[in-house]
Amino acid sequence: MRYEGPIYRPPSEAHSLLIQATIGCPHNRCTFCMVYKNGPRYRVRDVAEIKKDMIVAKEVYGSQIRTLFFPAGNTIAMKTDDLCAICCFAREIFPQLERITVYGSSQYIHKKGPGGLQRLAEAGLSRIHVGLESGDDVIIKRIKKGTNSAQQIEAGRWVAEAGIELSLYVILGIGGKERTKPHATNTAKVLNAIEPHFTRLRTFVPKINTPLLEDVKRGSFEMLGPHEVLKEAVMLIRGIEVSTCITSDHYTNYIKLDGKMPDEKPRLLKTINEFLKKDENFFRPFFVGQE
Ligand code: SF4
Known about the structure:
Helix content is about 40%, strand content about 15%. By secondary structure, the chain is α/β, with parallel strands linked by helices. It is built from nine helices and ten strands. The longest helix is centred in the middle third of the chain and has 18 residues, at about 105-125. It is globular, with a radius of gyration of 19 Å. It binds iron/sulfur cluster (SF4).
């Protein structure tokens, strides 16, 4: 089995078989992301080679494999025919599979259109992890995400309509002090329009080799402190009115939050308000991310 470049997968895929279908990220411009800044350049692996890796994995792990994740940064950007082919093959050789997942940014999902997403669902793709980051268009443009809130909403709805689970990532603090309120309120609006299965919270940590770290050092981007991040989370959660599972399953966060919206909104808000009574020194210190 082969793997090229940094191994990057969501915590929820910790027990999944990783079979690399693409290498790098075709976008590779987000100002906060360092994963592929030093390469490798984006390319799609040969379908025959991907299938060979699955055959080897079957020989080694057999029926232990329950979930499969195809890295890397934007595997949804593969040709629909090729992605369908590897999903069908996976379902055939691992009949016990419960889930096949990829990463996908909204602009690449959007290019698939409702028909392409339907075909992928029929081929067995069952979950897409999408870095929404923010629903605020000013922030989306500043961080060079390559999309906008209208496209994020349309792409997200198409995924859900195709019957594929949608896992959206939101970065608390990504708008800095200047846009904390529009970030929270506009992100809640986008989440309400999409109604994703999962809303996964991360907290902005500047990473080495990124333009946003340079902005932090220059002082042109003012980061939020722990209390400000928690207050932003309160505004965001207050604004969410639809059904979605909120989780903060990541080392960057200041506190652990898990709850089903909207029923558990009061409990989530109560938890955050309890932590807001603590001194700022209680929370993890500032650090520069290395990965
Ligand atoms: S955040 Fe995702 S889309 Fe943006 S550069 Fe990194 S891997 Fe690519």
